[in-house]
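Model it.
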Amino acid sequence: MSSSGQKSKVSSERVSALLAVSTVIFALRKDEQTGDLASVWLPLVRRIREPYEGCWALPGGPLHLDESLAFAAARTLHDTTGLTPSYLEQLYAFGDVTRSGVPAEAPQTDGQRVVSIVYWALVRSDEAALASVSENVRWFPADDLPTLAFDHNLIVEYALWRLRTKMEYSRIAHAFLGETFTLAQLREVHEAVLGRALDPANFRRTIEGSGAVVATDQYLTGTRHRPPRLYRYDDAVDLADQGPLPRQQHPFERRREL
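Modeled.
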């Protein structure tokens, strides 16, 4: 084949894809109807156009040329839910050729492939309560989701697995708590995320032996029994180890400084 023929073949094929950013945001919430103990929930948005019109999906949108991936994730999340999470981490890139769920000749996509860079975020329960909720934005329990648009069920499943795995070895639980907390409150976070009860004595020994938390001189007031001591996480250590990667600035911090 001549060089001109090769160029013609390449130009007739699609060699690029649309790049989008989506975010899975987790919070611990109680079921208001059943009164069940706190568990992991996440906000979803209802799609208002094809494909998958009327289906629930993760907050997200296209990546703008003048913004970083993390900023795009934070922006789309804030635009749809009003939330500004303190913890935001890149999860995975999802780009299966069939993930759009529509045939290549569909006019609404022009057969373009969409690759999603997915982030996951964590917020405290009091912050989650301030989220914008409407007919098209609603909270769902992470372990009991409806059928979502695209491959978003798989994305949530993977994000939940990552959260539970990190709960076992990192300080990620801090993102669900205030600056100070009791060991009982910390244990409740672990139990809610892991979905099982933990022995209080064993949990205390594990946490105190890890060096992850520091005892303060403060105590929780207003309790019926002896006031429990308040702890805080060691600020010298990040919530999650980033390895050789530089410590990331919060995507909205630069905007606050300007």
